[in-house]
Amino acid sequence: MHGVSGGTAEKILDHPIVDRVAGDSHAGFYRPRPGAGAAGGATPGIAVEAYRWGALTAGAAVRTASMLLLLPFMLSNLAVRLRPAATGRSRLFRVLCRLLAGTLTAAFVLSVIGVTLDLVGWQCVPYDGCRANRPYLSWLGDLPTGPRLALLALVPLVALRAVWGLGARSTRALEGFRPPQPHPEAARAPDRLDVPGFWDDERTPAWLRQIHVAIGAGTLDASLLAGISAPDGAAGLVLFAAATGLIGYATVLLCLPVPATRRRVRRVLRPLSAATLGLSALSLGYAALSRDVRSPPGQLPGYEGAVGALLGAQGILLVVLALVTVAPRTTGNRTVLGGLGMPVVAAASVTVAGAFAATLVFRVADFLDRGALPGPIWPDPPGIAPLDPPVAYWWAALAGLAALLIATGAASITLVVGRRRRRRRAAGIVARDYPHVAAGAMSRRDVVRETIARSHVTDELGPILVTFFVMSSLGLATIAFDLIGVGPTQLVARLSRDPAETTLLTAYVTDGGVWLISLLVIGLMILAFRSYRSAETRRTVAALWDLGDFWPRTVHPFAPPCYAARAVPELARRVSALGARGKVIISGHSHGSVLAAATILQLPPDALRRVALLTHGCPLSRLYTRLYPAYLGRETLCELGDRLDWRWRNLWRDTDPVGGPVFPRPDHGPAACDVPGAGSVDIRLRDPVSLAIDPADTVPPPLERHWPYHTQTPYRTAVRDLADRIR
Length: 727
Description:
This protein is mainly alpha-helical. Among the domains are: 9-55 and 562-725, no CATH class; 82-320, no CATH class. Helices cover 60% and strands 5% of the residues. The protein contains 30 helices and seven strands. The strands form two sheets. It has a four-stranded parallel beta sheet with strand order 4-5-6-7, sandwiched between helices. Strands 1-2-3 form a three-stranded antiparallel beta sheet. The longest helix is centred in the N-terminal third of the chain and has 35 residues, at 90-124.
């Protein structure tokens, strides 16, 4: 099994002619065509079969391109998987992450509302100068304010449905092995990889999908009614209260566990769906019938307060999530930042969502005001609408830019500070592997030392992530200034002794920050377009989603679907079928070793007796145990070895920047698995095999680093050893 961006079946098998023996074009099992020779590096007497799953993420152009648009939702789903191994708070972690995911849906709808209802319907169309030479907007000026806003309110609903459709379309392409009925064990303990039904990626998203639709529709209804309802309009106030009540009810549902049966799911979701449709229809009808709506200059009433309150709520949730994460707990796993990976990734999802929203609103405002720069210190041109985006988006853009720049600076400092330590460690490895170096091989020795030093950079990312989280949280805390009507320039003017110069400088910095954030988002959009047109770019983008969409969706239903929901059950079925005929060795490279571990934990006991595991370039202990201690911690790896009766070998190199030993020997204290079999799992390969040039060659042996492993003699030796150990 290949890792991320694994390539074609011909490349995996190192054979020019292959046939698919099981599966389909999305994910299939391939073997060399009979009579065409054996696969490259094959051990005599053992048939080689490749599982190509890369097309699950990189196979469809539309699916891969749309994943960039769903990046904030994917990050929110990934965050909850990075929780610490303290299972006593797993439900609290899940609730907090789901609440944060609900705010992402509301933020998405509010950003579209900011373009349609606020900028176009409220701020632009009433002004002749904004409608001039724009026939696609001029006809809206003939409509009263109420019907105009009701018509434009259909756009956020269509956008919400489009995001829903992107995920649903991808799910249909990847589904195939969903259990027909939910498992009671999965409902009681959904966070164990060995529980049947863990990889079901439909039951929970189906429950959350309607809740998020209700949140999005309720946000739209409340924003629309706040703009057109008169203070003495009883009907509008009642509908507004109903919209806020719908949002509150959906928020409560996010805190409840997913019902164990489909009948209970339908019992709860049917009234919610009916209420969502009925309230949206009543709100649109009320707006369409409102003929005497006053539209004073400025923003849509209540819109800026809603944006500021939402961003403030996100900041509070992030702080609470961090406090709960770092609370005292008992765990023997070494985790990234002591388990702070969850709030860090959650902060990243909020930051990316804020960047998307700010870019959309500011770039549309820039287009509508014909390139002018309306802002805190520049007056609006005569006859042009005062197109003023919410101040909260200025703060959000500045916060995202500051977090990005300071995290980049922290990365540079961390790499420079740790360079001497990495080089010292690499020098010790080189001295041990090559005690006698000829004079002509000194330069080659230095290259190997630098390669080993660079391969350990991934172990020093902690300060970078901490810095990013702190800056993101502080940036969201600045939204409190928006709640009292203070923007960046107003704040500087109040604190400065020379308001004129400092205000001008702050305005330029603010505009520049918004443009830099916009350029980053536009770059992502260009990358999405390129992935749609170019297969090579699509494979590069899909390599990121191979890591982000590995886990089932339990937080945000609009995220890209989990490809492992098909891959793991499909592998388990294929391995069980092959095990009924003879011995099976599962060989996983890089991320494929993670799929292999998940597959073994799902195998029945009768199939396990004929299975062995060979991993190479394996990131289980180096990355996944530290990132996902609740799922792939030391205890899980020890259980994995016990299930296989320690028929497990892991090949690794010091030059590999991704893989490493599964059970590294600790400097102090007992080993993770105090059993004899654990000590025989890891097999270290010297890389390169020699520093000197072989007399029959013209260049020194290559540095293999992360690939390949299967073409070397130790790989074939491990295969033969594992085959002999299977009874």
